[in-house]
Amino acid sequence: MEFREFALQPFDSQSYVRHLSFRSPEELRRYISQKPPLHLYYSSAVYLQPSAPSMDEKGWRGSDLLFDIDADQIPGCSIQKLYYCPGEDELRRESPSGQCPSGGEIEEIEIIEPGCIELAKRNLAMLVDILVEEIGIQRSSIEVSFSGNRGFHVHCYVDESLRSLGREERRILVEYIKGSGFSPDDFYRGGERRKKIPIPPRAVDGGIPSRIARTYLRLTMVGDREVVSYLTGISRSISRKVIDSLSDIWRRDLYEVYIDEKVTMDISRLIRIPYSINGKSGLIAYPIDITKIDDFELGPHLSPFNNMKARIKTMARIPKINFYGIEFEANTQAYYEIEAPLAIFLALKGVADLVSITG
Fold first, then answer.
1. Which of 18, 260, 287, 354 could make a disulfide contact with 7, Cβ separation 3.0–4.6 Å?
2. How remote is the C-alpha of 8 from its chain's centroid?
């Protein structure tokens, strides 16, 4: 901990306080209890002097592997979006062109649909599988967290051989994980393209082909023993029946993974601290057991204010929204008593004033 840089964004500020260093969790808790942050981060990098004001002075000694999965970057994800200009009396469904008439910043209000998180969970499961089966990272070294907003963070506490990777090596690793440049055509055998026979991959083939076989086995209820025996590599022979059964296996969604490459390539990247509150949503950056990814559900229960009520005064008219199962619409300059997770969210977005919270 003493070799990590910490950073935070205060309330009512667009800038970050960086180059902080703490020697114990208790010291960090004391600091943030006196100066509660909107966002709280620590570095993936290890430094000799993490509180030094420049990267050269910090003395970089390597960085863990980080991965960021944003649901809104995955095809098929749908997001509720509203826009608010301070001083206006209504939220818009279309973004104002240019800037707000008042000259202020446009506040973008996003609510991720549960279906998007399901897509992100599928990508997350594939990523963890790749890290373990293809990169060779120990499961015990992988920490997964819901970001508190629209996706997941994966932090790998790796050994020196991977921690010392530079930006270019990390870029190559990202391209491999994403499946960039991979073509199933390389695995067709025979004469002309239309007459070639696509030989299905097996879990023992290595690389991306093995990823396709593993993902297919994990996502598809394969009932035929002969097909399972082939996919797992138990059987070395392949019949026409198996080829026909697996004719659709070379699908992109079985090997493509959507991750933010900038996050992984950045050796000085900051990552949100698990169990801290995401200042964009009011939800907790919640750690997830990597063996129970499918059990994760998005909802108000991820707020520390769940099962509480709050009184708010709205700053603008709010069209009907669905905040993870809580439906709400409101007139401007009106008082409402609503579920506290939603109230915190609206207050963070600047469209409501928080009057009180009750247990």
1. 18
2. 19
At 194, the pLDDT band (50, 70, 90 cuts) reads: low
* Helix spans in 187-260 (H): 207-219, 225-232, 240-245
Tokens for 113? 């649909």
The predicted-structure confidence for 146-188, as pLDDT tens digits, reads as follows 999 999 999 999 999 999 999 999 999 999 999 999 988 777 6
68 a catalytic residue: yes
Distances (CA, A) of 117 to 76, 120, 252, 294, 324: 11, 5, 19, 11, 11
Catalytic: which of 68, 185, 205, 289?
A: 68
How many other CB atoms are there within 10 angstroms of residue 39's CB atom? 20
**C-beta separation of 351 from 315 below 8 A:** yes
Dump pLDDT digits (tens) for 41-61: 999 999 999 999 998 999 999
Q: Let me know if 70 is a catalytic residue.
A: yes
Residue 4, Cβ neighbours under 10 Å: how many? Answer: 19
Model pTM?
0.92
| Structure token digits, residue 137 | 């990272």
Q: Which two tokens stand for residue 49?
A: 């002097």
Domains along the sequence of the chain with CATH: 6-69+138-179+261-295 (3.90.920.10), 184-251 (no CATH), 299-359 (3.40.5)
pLDDT tens for residues 279-336?
999 999 999 999 999 999 999 999 999 999 999 999 999 999 999 999 999 999 999 9
pLDDT of residue 210: 95
Is residue 260 annotated as a catalytic residue, yes or no? yes
Q: Where are the alpha helices (DSSP H) in the chain?
A: 25-34, 55-58, 114-130, 160-163, 167-178, 207-219, 225-232, 240-245, 261-265, 340-348
Residue of higher predicted confidence among 13 and 124: 124
Q: How many helices (H) and strands (E) does the chain have?
A: 10, 19
> Of the listed 70, 129, 224, 248, which one is catalytic?
70
Q: Give me 36's structure tokens.
A: 């509660």
